[in-house]
């Protein structure tokens, strides 16, 4: 299985493509904005103007797109959808962070087309993608995952089989919501301490020395201290993931007050003009 197609060569997809090219795979790419694919084209990837053409020779197709709308247009467009161009015995991997409802529909369409499919969204951002240190959260048949595992191992530090189809995306939405709530909690605590007379740098330094602060939150603390809000995980995407997580929660009888409150906070950050900034910039809401 040497021919890989990446549907989406943006911030994450391009870095994944480069790792595969370095490993000797034949890589094809499709991106809705062709100019964003130039880096991988220069590295040796073949570019195609349509997803249908991009997947024709692929043994494995990986999708890494922003949202449901982009995923649906790329996979199921009646004129040039990727699903209609895949060859027999090819495997489709959806690594985008999508809604459970859309992922379920896509999985059903894959079954109807007799295409082996796994959902395998990733935990990690651009640095992890560049280092081949992503974590894949996979849903689907173990045998299908085992077939693509050697390839995914080149992109990751861990591949976790969560359960049947759809399990990966459910886990990813919960993980992202959990992380977002932690970022808000840290930001609010730092803001409170500043108002109580403790300097921001001191507060962050103390938090970062405590066992209660995860390595990921330590990284966020460092970004807040440096006021570095370059978009590793833009708030626009954070808000989208919370929206999808809350849509998943609608199928239960419980209330998810913390998730709802965090979602509202990130929407406020977008209204304040921080949507294209990194998740850490939510801390600015607590500065005043």
Stretches with pLDDT under 50, minimum 5 residues:
none
What is the number of independent domains?
Answer: 2
How many angstroms separate the termini? 55 Å
Which fold does the CATH topology of the largest domain refer to? Rossmann fold
Helix content: 40-55%
Mean pLDDT metric: 96
Q: Report the structural category.
A: alpha/beta
Oligomer: single chain
Strand content bin: 5-15%
The neighbouring-strand order within the major sheet is 3-2-1-4-5-6
The CATH superfamily label of the largest domain reads NAD(P)-binding Rossmann-like Domain
* Rg: 20 Å
Query: What's the order of the H and E elements?
Result: EHEHEHEHEHEEHEHEHHHHH
Kindly provide the name of the CATH class of the largest domain. Answer: Alpha Beta
Described by strand count, sense and barrel closure, the largest sheet is: 6 strands, parallel
* Overall morphology: globular
- Going by CATH, the architecture of the largest domain would be 3-Layer(aba) Sandwich
> Could you give the count of β-strands?
9
